[in-house]
Amino acid sequence: MFKNHRITLLAVIILSLFSTVTYGASDYIDKSQITNGVIKINNNNNNVGAVRVSKGNISYDYILKGDETIPLQLGDGEYTILALESVGNNKFKQIAKETVTLKAKDPNKVYLQSIQMVNWNTDMNAIKKAKELTKNVKNDQEKVEIIYNYIVTNISYDKDKAKRVNSNYIPKIDETLKVQTGICYDYSSLFAAMTRSIGIPTKLVMGYKNDMDEYHAWNQVYLEDTQEWVNIDTTYDAGKRKSNPSIPMIKDIQDYKIEKEY
């Protein structure tokens, strides 16, 4: 329930590339964490305004505001990384390009990492809360249910924010925890950060739900106990729980249309 993500916008404006100046890719593209399924973009002097990550005919685009960790979530194989500098008027020029090869021992490891839209570290209050809530709990599904119930119970949907948020918005999980309100992007980022921090692979997913018109964000969680990915929608359930306290946590995947996942 928010404006279509900035990625759609960039997918258009990136076609406006009108010049190419390529420097050493290593100046901008750090591959040291590629075994975890991520790369880091070093935004030297804020030169890099955007990054495009492509594998085959699928591309993901990111607007940058500093150094960022970017996922390689499309499976093993070759990825093309373009670092782009903004030259104004929604136009970019290429300043670095590199092809990297991912050979992941664990394909789910990427969904444990801190990345641009699921940004977390152990000093954050939300991460401390996740550790506190799940202390001494050993079953993954029970841990997920505890964090799910905490978010659904304590975070309220912010309709005004949904109307005014811009397409380049990135959630801050501690801010969501503090104000206890947010849009679906805030809910799903907070949930993913909290579950990732306790070792449970979690995707932040974007697309549409069959009974909603608005662009939406939710999560998919990998349960080690049953070795399956399940759909969880904390935003939807936070709104529905008052009228239906027994609403199930795990949602039918057929009710959702996935466009992007991180």
From TrEMBL:
Organism from which the protein derives: Tissierella pigra
Keyword Signal among record annotations: yes
Keyword Signal assigned: yes
Start and end residues of each Transglutaminase-like domain: 176-236
Annotated keywords: Signal
Lineage: Bacteria, Bacillati, Bacillota, Tissierellia, Tissierellales
InterPro entries, alphabetized: Papain-like_cys_pep_sf, Transglutaminase-like
TM segment ranges: none
Coiled-coil positions: none
Protein name: Transglutaminase domain-containing protein
Signal peptide: 1-24
